[in-house]
Inverse folding.
């Protein structure tokens, strides 16, 4: 008996060891703090994208916090010693870093990291210094560069105010600011009738003193997370923006989505979530091929237009139809679905309960009639049930015709998807082609939002909850729609739930 227990213990140990070794260990190093919005959005998108596609990843996260601390050689040496000691027994498979300082740290100390013999691939996002592309070893470093798009923002200002000739770029005098300034200066010659002014300092008070006094002056934020007050305390981004906006004569634009606080109109911005998501895609490609050979860094930043509706009104500027159609607009009045979510959930619950109750009654009636009259063909009764259900779906279709709302229902047990007629019409979907395909709806979700859609669908199914999110849908004739999507499930005896419902509000 003792020998048997020893044998079982050895087998358990081997299995545990094999399971542990199958995990992918990813070390992440961020330039800034974990609560800095830009860092947080990159990290969450990176992790979510990988977790959605892989279930055996272990993440280890560290933060240089260089908005508050200077990255001196002494600090680098101490930090290097810290992580080498902390991760001495961890076999790191992949390194992921965000922003310039973290990449510089890894690049400078790569051969001293973790005291491992193997070449560990390094992936990055949010890096402004394009010169790093020439310095980094292509067999080790791959990532996504953060390029501030100057041209689009200048064209935006020219649209807002054709008579404007002076544009002011302000920043915190950090290494990142100077990388951005260099990019802007390379574009300046294409705007011959305009003058660019650069205002930067580590102390916000000195920047405020240099801001223009002319009415309706356009100020563009570059990077401002390193601003300090007179007591040498690092300011929160929203604190800096609030102080800048105390000057009533300025119109404030941004080149980074993390700065979309009160007082900021918006702009053509770098997007933290897109940066992290694209870096994760490079990691997934590496994990699939076990090689960096066919992977290329993204030199074109995945940027987008974003605006605050209320700030547009306050600044008395109007977006062109083209930009408005392709932009994310925040701060709008509560939309129909959000405002009436409780009512819609109640209606859906009543519809589902009524539908289930009707099915149960029809089924009971069918069984009773089958025993009473064996001459009645069963297929005729089934056809009768199907017509009843079709009538219920038609009732739902009629409800969903109001205010560009569409409806769908997925039965995961029967593997059947019902799409309301309104949804079929808006997306130009041929119901005959897709009627037997339970994945039909996912084909029309925008490529950038497929992972988000699948994640939310999975969450609803597993947790019997509801989610409300915004994304884009493309019709079969290539029309792009921005939608508000509510996915909901009624309690079911199946765990996870088998009946999932969705309401789509087309904006």
């Amino acid at each position: 008996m003792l020998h048997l227990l020893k044998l079982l213990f050895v087998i358990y140990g081997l299995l545990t060891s094999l399971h542990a070794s199958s995990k992918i260990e990813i070390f992440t190093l961020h330039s800034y703090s974990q609560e800095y919005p830009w860092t947080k959005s990159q990290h969450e998108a990176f992790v979510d994208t990988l977790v959605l596609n892989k279930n055996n990843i272990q993440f280890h996260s560290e933060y240089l916090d260089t908005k508050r601390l200077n990255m001196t050689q002494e600090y680098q040496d101490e930090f290097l010693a810290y992580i080498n000691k902390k991760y001495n027994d961890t076999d790191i498979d992949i390194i992921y870093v965000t922003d310039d300082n973290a990449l510089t740290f890894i690049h400078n100390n790569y051969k001293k990291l973790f005291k491992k013999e193997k070449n560990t691939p390094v992936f990055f996002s949010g890096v402004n210094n394009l010169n790093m592309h020439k310095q980094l070893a292509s067999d080790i470093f791959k990532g996504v560069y953060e390029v501030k798009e100057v041209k689009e923002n200048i064209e935006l200002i020219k649209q807002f105010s054709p008579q404007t000739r002076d544009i002011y770029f302000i920043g915190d005098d950090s290494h990142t600011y100077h990388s951005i300034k260099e990019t802007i200066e390379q574009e300046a010659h294409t705007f011959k009738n305009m003058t660019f002014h650069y205002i930067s300092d580590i102390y916000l008070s000195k920047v405020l003193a240099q801001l223009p006094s002319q009415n309706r002056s356009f100020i563009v934020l570059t990077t401002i997370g390193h601003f300090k007050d007179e007591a040498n305390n690092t300011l929160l981004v929203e604190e800096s923006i609030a102080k800048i906006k105390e000057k009533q004569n300025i119109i404030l634009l941004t080149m980074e989505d993390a700065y979309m606080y009160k007082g900021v109109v918006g702009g053509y911005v770098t997007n933290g979530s897109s940066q992290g998501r694209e870096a994760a895609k490079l990691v997934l490609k590496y994990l699939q091929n076990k090689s960096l050979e066919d992977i290329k860094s993204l030199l074109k930043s995945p940027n987008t237009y974003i605006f605050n509706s209320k700030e547009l009104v306050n600044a008395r500027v109007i977006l062109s139809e083209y930009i408005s159609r392709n932009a994310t607009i925040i701060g709008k009045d509560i939309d129909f679905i959000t405002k009436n979510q409780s009512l819609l959930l109640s209606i859906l619950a009543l519809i589902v309960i009524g539908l289930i109750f009707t099915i149960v009654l029809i089924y009971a009636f069918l069984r009773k009639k089958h025993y009473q009259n064996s001459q009645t063909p069963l297929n005729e009764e089934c056809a009768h049930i199907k017509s009843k259900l079709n009538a219920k779906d038609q009732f739902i279709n009629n409800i969903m015709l109001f205010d560009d709302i569409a409806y769908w229902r997925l039965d995961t047990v029967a593997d059947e998807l019902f799409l309301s007629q309104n949804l079929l019409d808006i997306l130009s979907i041929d119901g005959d082609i897709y009627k037997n395909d339970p994945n039909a709806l996912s084909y029309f979700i925008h490529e950038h939002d497929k992972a988000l859609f699948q994640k939310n669908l999975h969450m609803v199914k597993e947790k019997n909850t509801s989610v409300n999110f915004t994304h884009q849908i493309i019709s079969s004739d290539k029309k792009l729609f921005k939608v508000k999507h509510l996915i909901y499930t009624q309690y079911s005896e199946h765990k996870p739930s088998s009946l999932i419902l969705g309401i789509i509000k087309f904006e």
Q: What stands out?
A: The CA atoms of residues 368 and 374 lie 10 Å apart. The chain has three domains: 2-147, 150-269+302-330, 336-506. DSSP finds 18 helices and 17 strands in the chain. The longest strand covers residues 480-489.
